[in-house]
Amino acid sequence: MTTLETPGPTVGVVGGGQLGRMLGEAAAPLGIEVIVLDPTPECPAAPVVSDQLVAGFDDEEAIRDLASRVDVLTFEIELADQDVLERVEAETGTPVHPKPATLRTIHDKLVQKRELEDAGIPVPPFREVEDAADIREAIDDYGAPVMLKARTGGYDGRGNVPVESKDEAAEALESVAGPAMVEAFVEFEREVSVIAVKGEDDVATFPLGENVHVDEVLRETIVPARSSADATERAYEVARDVLEVMDGRGVYGIELFETSESARADGDSGENRAGGGEILLNEIAPRPHNSGHWTIEGTHHSQFEQHLRAVLGWPLGETQLRSPTVLTNLLADVEDERTAQLRDIDSVLETPDAHLHWYGKEQARPLRKMGHVTVSGREEDADIEALLETARDLEDGLTFRPE
């Protein structure tokens, strides 16, 4: 039986960005203490957590120090070093969730895709890339374009390069600057995601979200997704199968492509193109995910609370949708790095059922995620298109540019 005392249990988080900040906000009502480790002094999470250790994500001595002060370790960024976490867990006895082995799988996109394919999870056709000739061969087999991906280090679309023709292969590979893989380009009906939670004895899934990306960066999430009942159920099935492969408790952001029957390519060069009314796995994040931020207002127990419950081995909370909800990310519309400033916020503050989240980042950089806005309906059958229009209007009225 779960018991609370004062002080309550302490969770150590490797990473203190916006996800660490929202974990700290979710922890306080439950009496959970949070300590973060992040190389940036006064990181975004610092104002809302118990303490911050200023150290690199691979600083073994600092992570061992963190482990000595907490009941469980977790991470909010894939730059956490899985080998260090594995050694610290073995030497200190402080559990790490999700497990370092899962982080090792996720860290390398090629390893991730191979393990998932071996487990029978549907993924787009892919292959390892050693030189430009491999990309050109993939274009022969999959059709153009193909998607070239950095195997490690990519996030928010960074490290993903569409290759439109064989002539672009060498330049694209040079831009990735490291180990790479290539995938068939998925002609999808929509991009969706399942925020799934793996607890000690149970699994929970949040309602399916529909994601809108521009230039490979997530701009909007619409819940519930405008998918058919069959596609939605298939997405849940794939997500549950993914959790079977993952080791360790916590929240997992599972990004998927929903294709349509008309998505198959024409011509001989495209006959192996991914498509045809399927749900295909894109990528997995073993942590709370941007496409799940809507859960703070859209459900009774957010993805951040669920992550904390899960890593501590507590019972999971409710994941049912309160009412349709739309999220829009606030990306810095600046041309160069400058002190962060968000202007004209009154329109959001004055709009019923709109919620502003500011991440506390001191510097704005081009397309950097600085915050988000959610707009929720008041009824279960609220008009999702009207909510989306309101969210877009509010986002359009905000600016990071100086007067």
UniProtKB/TrEMBL annotation:
Alphabetically sorted, this entry's keywords are: ATP-binding, Ligase, Magnesium, Nucleotide-binding, Purine biosynthesis
EC annotation?
A: 6.3.4.18
Q: Which InterPro entries match?
A: ATP-grasp, ATP-grasp_carboxylate-amine, ATP_grasp_subdomain_1, PreATP-grasp_dom_sf, PurK, PurK_C, PurT/PurK_preATP-grasp, Rudment_hybrid_motif
**Pfam families noted in UniProt:** ATP-grasp (PF02222), PurK_C (PF17769), RS_preATP-grasp-like (PF22660)
Task: Provide the coiled-coil residue spans.
Answer: none
Per the UniProt entry, what are the Gene Ontology biological process annotations, in alphabetical order? 'de novo' IMP biosynthetic process
PROSITE patterns documented for this protein:
ATP_GRASP
**Pathway, according to UniProt?**
Purine metabolism; IMP biosynthesis via de novo pathway; 5-amino-1-(5-phospho-D-ribosyl)imidazole-4-carboxylate from 5-amino-1-(5-phospho-D-ribosyl)imidazole (N5-CAIR route): step 1/2
> Is Nucleotide-binding given among the entry's keywords?
yes
Q: Which reaction does it catalyse?
A: 5-amino-1-(5-phospho-beta-D-ribosyl)imidazole + hydrogencarbonate + ATP = 5-carboxyamino-1-(5-phospho-D-ribosyl)imidazole + ADP + phosphate + 2 H(+)
Q: Any idea which GO molecular function terms this record carries?
A: 5-(carboxyamino)imidazole ribonucleotide synthase activity; ATP binding; metal ion binding; phosphoribosylaminoimidazole carboxylase activity
Superkingdom, natural source: Archaea
Q: Which residues form the ATP-grasp domain?
A: 113-312
For the ligand (ATP), the binding residues are 109, 149, 183-186, 191, 213, 282-283
Q: Which function does this protein serve?
A: Catalyzes the ATP-dependent conversion of 5-aminoimidazole ribonucleotide (AIR) and HCO(3)(-) to N5-carboxyaminoimidazole ribonucleotide (N5-CAIR).
Q: How does it assemble?
A: Homodimer.
Family to which this protein belongs: Belongs to the PurK/PurT family.
Q: Which NCBIfam families does the record cross-reference, listed alphabetically?
A: PRK06019.1-5 (NF004679), purK (TIGR01161)
Q: Which PANTHER family match?
A: PHOSPHORIBOSYLAMINOIMIDAZOLE CARBOXYLASE (PTHR11609:SF5), PURINE BIOSYNTHESIS PROTEIN 6/7, PUR6/7 (PTHR11609)
Q: What is this protein called?
A: N5-carboxyaminoimidazole ribonucleotide synthase
